[in-house]
Amino acid sequence: MMMLVSGFTIIRNGVKFGYPFLESIRSLLPLVDELVIVAGDSVDSTNEALASLDSDKVKILQSVWDPELRKGGLVMSQQTNLALDECTGDWCFYLQADEVIHEKDYDVIRASMKKHLDNPKVEGLYFRYRHFMGSYDILNPLAYRHQVRIVRNNIGIRSVRDACGFSRSNGKNMRVRIGYPIKGIEADIYHYGWVRPPLVMQEKTNEFVTFYHGEYASDDVEEGKEWLYNFSTCRPYVGTHPAAMHEVINKKDWDTPIFKFVPAWRNPAVWVTRLKKIGLFKAFKRKS
Prior knowledge:
The protein is α/β, with parallel strands linked by helices. It has one domain: Spore Coat Polysaccharide Biosynthesis Protein SpsA, Chain A, CATH 3.90.550. It is 24% helix and 23% strand. It has seven helices and twelve strands. The longest helix is centred in the last third of the chain and has 16 residues, at 198-213.
């Protein structure tokens, strides 16, 4: 049986905020038969950059981000669903604008899609994640470890919340749990969302505060302020990067603060966060 794969993504102000969106798109193109891009109302040269893509697979749709959806990041899932609705393939392969596929994983990704194509019980495929922080040789291992990025088409699957995940037709989130109709792929998504010059990182963060709160609602928001990276839970990365990222990596022109590896078990902040999650501190709260 012939398999058709659609890629889809969204982008807005990608140049201004330092997204490797062209690299992301180019890393996905070899795996798809079509690639739907919903381009938001950018104020920079993002649309001109998209026009430089030389592929008959690419379909660019123009869109305007609704300011009424600037709460909880909902505008991002709304835009993502516009792209998903245009997909015609059996599988729909989503990448965010700061996520890149390594060419060494192409074969295993293709094989996984083919393996599960004729099994309607498998509704999605999830990847492992490598999150880079501040530089291309530093990993943050405490960020989310898996996400669904390939979903079966025409069964009611939707992008939800801030477009990091998907929901099935029964309304349940497609989380990585035993018994859920999703399967893992032995491949990684290379996530560069936290690798930018400190000033650009702060400007991007300021912008995204408005997507979650509707306005600047953070003490971190300050014009001209540089982002301060916290490497306390990070570790060095000595592996390879996708070929699509090599030119970007070679152009890195900012200094990253001195990196000192602190194991998670020796980091008090990590244990405080974990203890809060299991509710251990609740018993010590004073009654008002």
